Every structure is written in structure tokens, then in C-alpha cells.
Amino acid sequence: MPDIHAPGSVGLVTPTVMHFDQPLELECHRVLPAYELIYETYGTLNADASNAVLICHALSGHHHAAGYHSEQDKRPGWWDSCIGPGKPIDTNRFFVVSLNNLGGCHGSTGPASINPDNGQPWGPDFPMVTVKDWVNSQARLADRLGIRTWAAVIGGSLGGMQALQWAIDYPDRVGHAAVIASASKLSAQNIAFNEVARQSILTDPNFHGGRYYLHDTYPRQGLILARMVGHITYLSDDAMRAKFGRDLRSGRFHFGFDVEFQVESYLRHQGETFSRHFDANTYLLMTKALDYFDPARDFNDSLDQAVAQARCPFLVVSFTSDWRFAPERSEEIVRALMAVGRDVSYAEVDTDKGHDAFLLDIPEYTRLFGAWMRRIANDLEARA
């Protein structure tokens, strides 16, 4: 049983759903006539709404970033290590907003939602959404919450891409941006991994062209394989060696294709668990949003010109063992920001935890991230 009332926890939280009737024009040239966003908040918005922080989630993330939904919850939100009283994103000083993106499967409008045109789940008819679309929908949520300017927009991995897009598209609405374990665009290798994951879903006999909701089934095996492929890329070779080595479950070979090594058991468990709570159509959409992200395309393929639109100070963080978004990818962003004279702090954290390090309580990472956030809070409070 978790200690919901422990120091540093935001405790019990309740999500809120916001409905939007204003049509949203999407980059794919389609229009979403109406939609809902589910979000959570932690902390208290101050009188001039200047202490708001937006948390952008990664591929499989959602609105539940910190705290617990009930006394029976076994695990807190996905970024509970960084959000709470006294933590790097200190909820004694900041008002934190975390939402589930459009196309998601945890409460915001997505493929599993009902299409008002036919009364059936959207499925494959749900429009393709991009990072830019998400940012535009998040800006509307900010408007409804009375937040003109975010003190900081923060995200890791796909969330870091959203933070970068925010700074480019809404420079006067972002006080600071933190881009963690991310990149300005995917490499061919990353797109290849995403395509393998998508093909595992698309070729599952239970996919039914994305209309599996109508067949009372879902592409379980495809989702399991997709998650297994993804999970391998989230860990480093050193982390996998330290955690599993070549350990056998039963201590001997069985000369068959059932699970024998501990790492096989772990991946199958992760895949099975993921397949039970994540929607396959959402997985397809989210990976395509990753593939499409490239803000430089709107600026003659110049990342320098793209980030020149931003005016806020940046924090960019990478991790030495992250081979999904290697430190070199973060350094590309840093070089572009420096080339156009923007204020940027960069840290490469030495760890063997791989890409998922951005979610973990790693002392060096926690200290530098916390120090950066404290400076923001101190400046805000000094101006109050």
C-alpha cells in the first residue's frame, strides 16, 4: 500500500475533463469539430497566473503525472519522482498542469472515442495529429485555465518535442522550456523502429483495419510486440546486463522457444501489461506524430531559423547511455540555440539507465533540474 500522505507526494488527485466546441484545424488539413482534453493539476495557481508549469507527456504517457487516484493505487503518476512538495517541480511554488494529448486513450478524445457522425468509435477515421496540433490544443486549454504565459513548459522524449514546439510557435507564452532526452527530429533508425512496431499491430489478425472495437477484440499480440521493440530501445545495454544478465528462470536450458532467459520474461510481461491498457490506434498515431516532428521543415530546413523564433531560456538535458535520443541529438538543439544567441543551459548526465533515465530519480539529474526550477520560482516570487 503506498504512503499517499508521505512528504513529497501531492496525495490524492482527481482528473478534470474540459470540452471544446471550437473546431481545431489540424496539420493534416482535416478539422476536429469538437473534442475533450483530460488533465490534472497540482499546486495552486497564484493571483496573476504566473506560476503555471505545463508537463508534456511522452509516447505512452498521459495526464496522471503525480500523486494517486485512490487509496488503493499501487503506483503514483508517471513523473512522481519530479513533481510534488519540495521536489524539482515544487508544487509549493508552482501550479502544474498535465494533460492527455488528443488521440490519446486515457480520457482525451481519440480513436476509441465516439465519432458523432456515426455513433461508432472513430478507429482509423480519427484524424492524424501532430506535435504542432497538440501544442495548439494545449494553448486552448491554457486559455480556459486563465494562463496567458507558462512559467515553464517541460517534457521528456516526445514531451520534449512539444516543449520545443511551444517555444517556437508561442514565444510570448513560454517563460522557460525544458527539453529532456529529446531531439529536433527522429533519425532514420528511430523511424525504422516505429515502423516495425506499427507493422506488428497492422498485421495482427485482430486489428480488423483499426475497427477492432466493433469485433469485441483488439490486436493484443501486435501491441505486445510493439511494446517489446520499444522497450528494448528505452533501456541501455549496460542497464539490461545489470538487471538480467544471461540469467535463466529455471537455472537450465530447455531447448525450446518458451521463456528461458529472465530478459525474455521481463519483455513479455511488459508487453502483456501494456497491451491491456493502451489502445492500438493511439499507438499508431503517437508513433507517426514522432516521425513527422521536424520544426525546421517550416524554416527552409534550418533548425537555427526555427529556434530563432523562441525567446525563452532553455534547459536541455541528455543521458550518456540514451541511444534512442543520444546526447548528440540534444547537442544539435543546443548548437542551434547558441547560434541564434538564445539562453541555454545544457547537461549530459552520466548514467547507465538509457532513454528512460528522464523518468528516474538520478541524483545529478534531480539536483540540476531542481536548481533550474528554483531559479525560475525565485525570479517569479521576486517580481511578485
Features:
single chain, 384 residues, alpha/beta, two-stranded antiparallel sheet, 14 strands, 34% helix, 15% strand, globular
Explain what this protein looks like in three dimensions.
- The protein is α/β, with parallel strands linked by helices.
- The protein contains ten helices and 14 strands.
- The protein has helices spanning 131-145, 158-169, 188-202, 220-234, 237-243, 262-277, 280-292, 303-307, 327-339, 363-383, and strands at 16-20, 24-25, 31-32, 35-42, 52-56, 83-84, 89-90, 95-99, 114-115, 120-121, 152-156, 177-180, 314-319, 344-349.
- Strands 1-4-8-5-11-12-13-14 form an eight-stranded mixed β-sheet, sandwiched between helices.
- Strand 2 (24-25) and strand 3 (31-32) form a beta hairpin.
N-to-C terminal Cα separation, in Å? 41 Å
Question: What order do the SSEs take from the amino end to the carboxyl end, as H and E?
Answer: EEEEEEEEEEHEHEHHHHHHEHEH
Strand content: 5-15%
User: Structural class of the secondary elements?
Assistant: alpha/beta
Largest sheet: 8 strands, mixed
Radius of gyration: 21 Å
Taken from the alpha-carbon principal axes, the silhouette is globular
Number of helices: 10
Average pLDDT for all residues: 96
User: Largest beta sheet: what is the strand line-up?
Assistant: 1-4-8-5-11-12-13-14
Question: How many beta-strand segments?
Answer: 14
Give the % helix: 25-40%
**Which spans of ≥5 residues are poorly predicted at pLDDT below 50?**
none
